[in-house]
Amino acid sequence: MNGKESSVESAPASALVDPAKGQEWLQRYADSVLGVFGTPQRVLVRGAGCLVWDADGKQYLDLLGGIAVNALGHAHPFVTSVISSQLATLGHVSNFFTSPTQVALAEKLLALSGAPVESKVFFANSGTEAVEAAFKLARRNSAAAPDGKPRTRILALEGGFHGRTMGALALTAKQAYREPFEPLPGGVEHLPFDDLQALEAALDESVAAVVLEPIQGEAGVRPLSTGYLQRARELTRAAGALLILDEVQTGVGRTGRWFAHQSSGITPDAMTLAKGLGGGFPIGALVTFGPRASALLTAGQHGSTFGGNPVATAAALATLHALEAGAVLQNADDVGNFLRSSLTAVPGVDEVRGEGLLIGFDLDGDFAAEAVREALEQGFIINAPTPHTLRLAPPLILTRAEAQGFLDALPGILDTARTANARTHAAQSTEAPA
Ligand SMILES: *Cc1c(COP(=O)(O)O)cnc(C)c1O
């Protein structure tokens, strides 16, 4: 049988589902999808550039980009066509085999990260998987202490987020994420954020690795100081510990550079990537820098069925190509600077942080959740990583005009949110038993 004779020769995914409105989908979601995410804010059906539409036809400016994922916006024509043609040629082969796109992507990532000779890439399917690989890399550094004692400790930071699988969760600091799943893999200690004295006191030859986000994303876009990153590099090198940078959120152009750590001039021993890498297609990667880090995980010590498959690696190659060809990192830098300087002038905004198009700003009260809801009502997708912090991680192709549209609406959004928050508190205090 050839494709032409098939009754399912060509059809959009929407042909596989019956049409329904948003509320009906949400009810069916609640009845069928595991409740770990709570109730979704909307049911989205379509996107183009920085815009998305929900099942009721309402349009939104997407200022979150699927949490720093949709670097080129939605339905980017070049990325879409590369993915479909790769899928129509060869979709999956397993790691008993390789493919040209896998090799080309590894080479491209090493070139963009300025990695020295004998650097390598391991491909995974998500951020947490890239971090798991990094965790195993750190464990393999255990036997390398000069006194023969194993390096059992791994240092991470308070506020750090590294994913939800067990190893990544052990590195993640947030108690609410950790406690229900203890015991977690041992040996991880969380140091106070950006505190050099604490790092100096903790780092000795019993440490296998230090794991840092150059900018903590989930904690509310908190940048580590350049001095901290540079000193962490010196101290880990001296102690024989690995410096592992988690750039799952900050990597691939998000900050206006290919990788956030490049602004500090350091070279890590390993770096994790995911979110923006596939332009919306799931893929993760661990880059190991130089011969020592690249020799720690040997044949048979790690693996993945899907990791590095032809479609995912083609998607990432296409994304990197389009970011380069369109001078998109420059745009991220320009529009990011414009947004940050404009945000500082908005009443109710206390502090603005971040680089490129990874932006966090603190409000002068705990009404960020209400602001997210009101923004959605007004057609903007944003996010509240903390009760008083809003985060923007839009497509890196966001235009100044699109950014301006949000800035124009923001004072009204914050006013309404503050009022809604005050009303909730007033209602709660009158409801409280005497
Ligand atoms: C999102 C994130 C992860 C986890 O990535 P997933 O793809 O959700 O598994 C890990 N580290 C950082 C810094 C992240 O922002």
TrEMBL record:
InterPro entries: AcOrn/SuccOrn_fam, Aminotrans_3, Aminotrans_3_PPA_site, Class-III_PLP-dep_AT, PyrdxlP-dep_Trfase, PyrdxlP-dep_Trfase_major, PyrdxlP-dep_Trfase_small
Record: residues binding N(2)-acetyl-L-ornithine: R164, S304
Main localization of the protein described in the UniProt heading: cytoplasm
Keywords: Amino-acid biosynthesis, Aminotransferase, Arginine biosynthesis, Cytoplasm, Pyridoxal phosphate, Transferase
Reactions accelerated catalytically: N(2)-acetyl-L-ornithine + 2-oxoglutarate = N-acetyl-L-glutamate 5-semialdehyde + L-glutamate
Subcellular location: Cytoplasm
Enzyme nomenclature, EC number: 2.6.1.11
Pfam families per UniProt: Aminotran_3
Cofactor(s) the protein needs: pyridoxal 5'-phosphate
UniProt modified residues of type N6-(pyridoxal phosphate)lysine: K275
Record has Protein biosynthesis as a keyword: no
GO CC terms, sorted: cytoplasm
Residues noted as binding pyridoxal 5'-phosphate in the record, renumbered to the chain: G127, T128, F161, D246, E247, V248, Q249, T305
Other facts: May also have succinyldiaminopimelate aminotransferase activity, thus carrying out the corresponding step in lysine biosynthesis.
Family: Belongs to the class-III pyridoxal-phosphate-dependent aminotransferase family. ArgD subfamily.
NCBIfam families to which the protein is assigned, alphabetical: argD, PRK01278.1, PRK03244.1
Subunit composition and interactions: Homodimer.
Name the UniProt record assigns to this protein: Acetylornithine aminotransferase
Organism: Arthrobacter subterraneus
Gene from which the chain derives: argD
